[in-house]
Amino acid sequence: MKVYLATDHGGFELKNKLVEYVRELGYESQDCGAFVNDPQDDYPELIAEASRKLSADSLAGIDSRAIIIGASGQGEAMVANRFKGVRCALYYGPAGKEQKDMSGKSLDMLASSREHNNANCLSVGARFLSEEEVKDAVKKWLSMAFPGEERHTRRIKQIDEVA
Prior knowledge:
Number of domains: 1
Largest sheet: 5 strands, parallel
Radius of gyration: 15 Å
Structural class: alpha/beta
Helix content: 40-55%
Number of strands: 7
């Protein structure tokens, strides 16, 4: 599986480490930039590069993913989600952290992004997670398959039709 990685200056060092880490995990990684650490760069076009490639793969039925990084990850996720076929989840971690909904039901938001939404893009806020927390999340997220439950598949189709 191919994994596209992109960032602005907010996650530059982390992205460079993740490019190699993704390869170590046995995936094909493609660095989509930034290629220099420029504090004045703007994330929209940098994130759009990975998002365009992921969108093209998604529309062609090719299983690939993207990991995008920013200081908060918020704007980066917004950019990615503008591309047809891209379903980007924002993650603040840490991996495996038990969270509870209002009814008290335990949820793992990282797993939920794959199991319920078939997220093919993960946006990470570099200011909120350590390198090890991000690596743990990336390893877990990349290894998860979409179970394809009918109700979730139906909803994903509706998302794709809205765009």
